[in-house]
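Lecture notes, part 5. Sequence design as translation. It can be helpful to think of inverse folding as translation between two languages: the language of shapes and the language of residues. The source text, in structure tokens, appears below.
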């Protein structure tokens, strides 16, 4: 597992307006953590195909069909960055390009006012 990998994840149970169900996520945690087998959590950004989510401004980053193995045009929802247990990541779909990952990093910075 590496930063920028796209995995299918089981995001249940969740509550409220959090993204739920089985959906892609982008691994954002540092590779130093990702490579330690005893480190059980991983930081991710959920991905959606919702047009409503795509309209949410600088924290919603468009990912085209094929990016990281995605089967549809999608959006990385950077304002919902979260930590999951690794066991919730069920299947690796692919890896984002450096430019795609950099765009998501900017979305996370905007969501956390780190710009």
């Amino acid at each position: 597992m590496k930063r920028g990998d796209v995995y299918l994840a089981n995001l249940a149970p969740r509550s409220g307006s959090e993204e739920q169900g089985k959906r892609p996520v982008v691994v954002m945690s540092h590779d130093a953590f990702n490579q330690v087998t005893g480190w059980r959590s991983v930081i991710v950004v959920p991905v959606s195909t919702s047009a409503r989510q795509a309209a949410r401004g600088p924290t919603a980053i468009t990912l085209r069909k094929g990016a990281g193995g995605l089967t549809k045009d999608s959006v990385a929802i950077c304002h919902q960055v979260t930590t999951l247990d690794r066991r919730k990541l069920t299947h690796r779909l692919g890896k984002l390009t450096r430019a795609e990952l950099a765009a998501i990093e900017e979305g996370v910075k905007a969501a956390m006012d780190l710009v």
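The translated text above is only one of many valid answers, since several sequences can fold into similar shapes. Residues 63 and 74 are 5 Å apart (CA to CA).
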